[in-house]
Structure formats: structure tokens, C-alpha cells
Amino acid sequence: MRSILTFGSPSRLPHVSIRLAVSAILVTNASALRAQDAFSPKFTAFAGAGINTTQQNSRGAIQAGASFEEAPPGSWGGFSFEGGYLGPWAHIRAGSAFTSLDYMAAWSFGQKAKGQTRDGTPMWADRGWKLLPFASAGYTRLFGTGNAVNFGGGFDYRLSHTRAIRAEIRDYYSFSTPHQHNVALRIGLVFYISD
Length: 195
Fold this sequence. Notes:
The protein has 195 residues and is mainly beta.
């Protein structure tokens, strides 16, 4: 029996089915992907160049990964969970995967006001907040090296209520012998998630 709907060879059918399923999910959930405000949780993809230093030497390094965080501006209490890779440029395989759990604080600069949604629910009107500085510190597990602490800070520059560009400086300090700093200037793209 022949199939009524064909997409060329039978081996392409699973690929087309997956694409159709992903497209259907995105279309049906598009309204849930809209963010509300700067208080919404964030997903960030980042990468940056830096330096890896020990007592004996220094070499160029890279940091890349993604994070999920929730740190409402002005609340002095938030968290960040991130994972990724850090290591030397010259020997990419000599690096390490990592995960981090951090305390995070954020602030805001710009006009602040209270507003209401269409149904009368109170909300913060934060559309004027363009620059959102932050600082964080926490525990990091370097899978190739051991335990570390990380600390850093930077700012998010909001492009819209759903996206921002991030610039930050981050240092991972490893306690293993030899002690090691992995410092980088990271650039990221921030997506606000509807809460």
C-alpha cells in the first residue's frame, strides 16, 4: 500500500515529522514565550575571551555556556545556575566543562513607576529601565579540575522587553594545585522568560 503523503525518500520522513512537531509547539505556545518585565526569569547564552593564570604561567582562554537566572532588580536576592566550558584557546580539549550555582543581586537605572495590566492586576512599569547592573558569586564544579568559586559582575542593556545584551567579567578560582584563575570578558544574549 502506498502512502498518500510522501516527502521524497522514506528516510526523510522522521526529519520532516520532527520539524513539523517543533513548529506546532512553537506556534501553539508563542503567547507563553512573551516576557513580562525585568523581574521575569532570564535565559542567557554567553561566550568570551580571557586568560587562564597559575603560579607558573598564563595563557589565553575561552569561556562559553548558558545560564538560567532570576534576580529581580533591587531585591538583593536572586540565583543563577549556569553550565558551559572553560579552557585554553590553544588546546581546546584541555579545558573543562563546568556547572555553577550562584547568589545574584541586580539593580536598575531608569524611570520607575507602578502600572496595571488590562485586567487591573498591579505590575511594575519598567520599560524605561535600559541598564540593569548585577553582581554574583557562588560555587563551581569544574569537571576536569575540581572545586572552584566564581565571582563577577556586569550589566544587561535591554533592547526590548524580551531581549538584552549582556557584558560581564567573570573569574573562576580553582583551589586545586596549582591554584588557577580563569578570568574572561563575556558577551551574552539575554532572553526574558514569561513567568
